[in-house]
């Protein structure tokens, strides 16, 4: 009998390529937590989907590049330069490079974060 090499599992991200997938199914809610899943990670940028339990968030910080948030599910308050912005599913906002921003889930909330690593 000939031993065949075990078929290697494709890396997690490769399983997503070329397939129609419901974005909100890529990450699940967990009580009292923020959960994230990186979908694309290239030298030119990243795409990450997040799930926030109600009341959870990200404290004030800044990033060296612009980042776009697309609300996938729920409601959130995203504050940029001390100005609150209320988003619901289907809304988007661009957080400018170098500006302080924070995220607070008003209800369970999922978002797609797209960051392009370019200063132009």
Automatic annotation (TrEMBL):
Residues in coiled coil: none
InterPro entries, alphabetized: Cupin_2 (IPR013096), RmlC-like_jellyroll (IPR014710), RmlC_Cupin_sf (IPR011051)
Cupin type-2 domain sequence ranges: 50-115
Pfam families (alphabetical): Cupin_2
Name of the protein: Cupin type-2 domain-containing protein
Organism the protein comes from: Methanocella paludicola (strain DSM 17711 / JCM 13418 / NBRC 101707 / SANAE)
Lineage summary: Archaea, Methanobacteriati, Methanobacteriota, Stenosarchaea group, Methanomicrobia
């Amino acid at each position: 009998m000939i031993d065949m090499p075990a078929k290697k599992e494709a890396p997690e991200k490769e399983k997503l390529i070329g397939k129609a997938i419901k974005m909100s199914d890529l990450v699940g809610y967990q009580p009292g937590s923020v959960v994230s899943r990186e979908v694309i990670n290239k030298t030119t940028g990243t795409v990450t989907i997040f799930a926030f339990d109600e009341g959870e968030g990200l404290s004030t910080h800044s990033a060296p590049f612009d980042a776009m948030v697309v609300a996938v599910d729920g409601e959130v308050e995203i504050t940029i330069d001390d100005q609150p912005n209320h988003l619901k599913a289907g809304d988007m906002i661009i957080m400018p490079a170098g500006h302080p921003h924070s995220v607070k889930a008003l209800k369970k909330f999922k978002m797609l974060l797209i960051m392009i690593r370019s200063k132009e």
